[in-house]
Amino acid sequence: MAYTLTVNGSPHTVDTEPSTPLLWVLRDLLELVGTKYGCGVAQCGACTVHLDGVPVRACVTPVSRVGARAVTTIEGIAANPVGARVQEAWKSLDVPQCGYCQAGQIMSATALLAATPKPTDAQIDEAMDGNLCRCATYPRIRKAIKSASGQAEA
């Protein structure tokens, strides 16, 4: 079945089964490989993308449920001023260690700051819950979120 998706501001038509996870459409059909496969059951956050600015797990989101909503991936997040600030904070504070989970972390952090420009530590914890980092860069992630929000690290 053919689906036309708006991904990072551009329309793309793909021919796939309705149940195909958005993750595989992005990676295999559109060759946008920044979004990672982690667990396949929406528990790790590596596959996080935005649908109309809301973070979702692409590994469990069937392409048939995307509809007319705009898909934003890590490749397109810098077009969003908040996303650009988050990415700059990530780079300036050297957040990634292995880097595998960081696309999902950045996507969740960007959604948080878009909704809550000056989040508290509790709001950061809530928004980032479910984004796992095997390298345990959580203190640097929090510091980068605070930096991108213009707040000093507490």
Radius of gyration, CA atoms, in whole angstroms: 15 Å
CATH arch. level architecture of the largest domain = Orthogonal Bundle
Annotated CATH topology of the largest domain: DNA polymerase, domain 1
Uncertain residue ranges: none
Give the termini separation: 51 Å
- The level of helicity is 25-40%
Average residue-wise pLDDT: 96
For the largest beta-sheet, the strand count, sense and barrel status come to: 5 strands, mixed
Strand arrangement within the widest β-sheet reads 2-1-5-3-4
How many structural domains?
Answer: 2
Q: Which range does the strand content fall in? A: 5-15%
Structural class: alpha+beta
Silhouette: globular
Total number of strands = 5
Explain what you see.
It is globular, with a radius of gyration of 15 Å. About 35% of the residues lie in helices and about 15% in strands. A five-stranded mixed β-sheet has the order 2-1-5-3-4, with helices on both faces. The chain has about 150 residues and is of the alpha+beta class. Strand 3 and strand 4 form a beta hairpin. The chain starts with a strand and ends in a 6-residue tail after the last helix. The longest helix is centred in the last third of the chain and has 14 residues, at about 100-115. It has helices at about 20-30, 80-90, 100-115, 120-130, 140-150, and strands at about 1-5, 10-15, 50, 55, 70. It has two domains: about 1-70, Roll (Ubiquitin-like (UB roll)), CATH 3.10.20.30; about 75-150, [2Fe-2S]-binding domain (DNA polymerase, domain 1). Keywords: 2Fe-2S, Iron, Iron-sulfur, Metal-binding, Oxidoreductase.
